[in-house]
């Protein structure tokens, strides 16, 4: 059964860093573009970052440019979201998604002092 499992979320102070992982099983991600989305309470889910199948193209939401970096390790069948200089407004549930529309269950990120 194909699935995505996110991990690495937690509570961090403003200015801190977190590294989110999204591990795929039941299929290989190498053929797919991958994305990270987030959904804050009371808000719609929004695209945070995306990466092409080969990793040569990346895009970021304006709100996270310069602070977040998305990468992929096709050999390990996973994608990573490195989040630095975190702000309270980054608080949300973070989801990964394949280009084919498969979603993970999400991981909570809370940025608070």
Overview features:
10 strands, 113 residues, 6-stranded mixed beta sheet, 4-stranded antiparallel beta sheet, single chain
Describe the structure.
The chain has strands at 3-7, 10-12, 18-25, 34-39, 46-51, 58-60, 68-73, 78-83, 92-98, 107-111. It is mostly beta strands and 113 residues long. A hairpin with a 4-residue loop joins strand 7 and strand 8. The relative contact order is 0.33.
Terminal CA distance:
40 Å
Total number of helices: 0
Q: Output mean pLDDT.
A: 96
Strand residue content: over 45%
Model regions low in confidence, pLDDT < 50 over at least 5 residues: none
Could you outline the blueprint of secondary structure elements for this entry?
Layout (H helix, E strand, L loop, with lengths): L2 E5 L2 E3 L5 E8 L8 E6 L6 E6 L6 E3 L7 E6 L4 E6 L8 E7 L8 E5 L2
Parallel strand pairs: 2-10
Antiparallel strand pairs: 1-3, 3-8, 4-5, 4-9, 5-6, 7-8, 9-10
Quick synopsis:
The protein is mostly beta strands and 113 residues long. The chain is 0% helix and 49% strand.
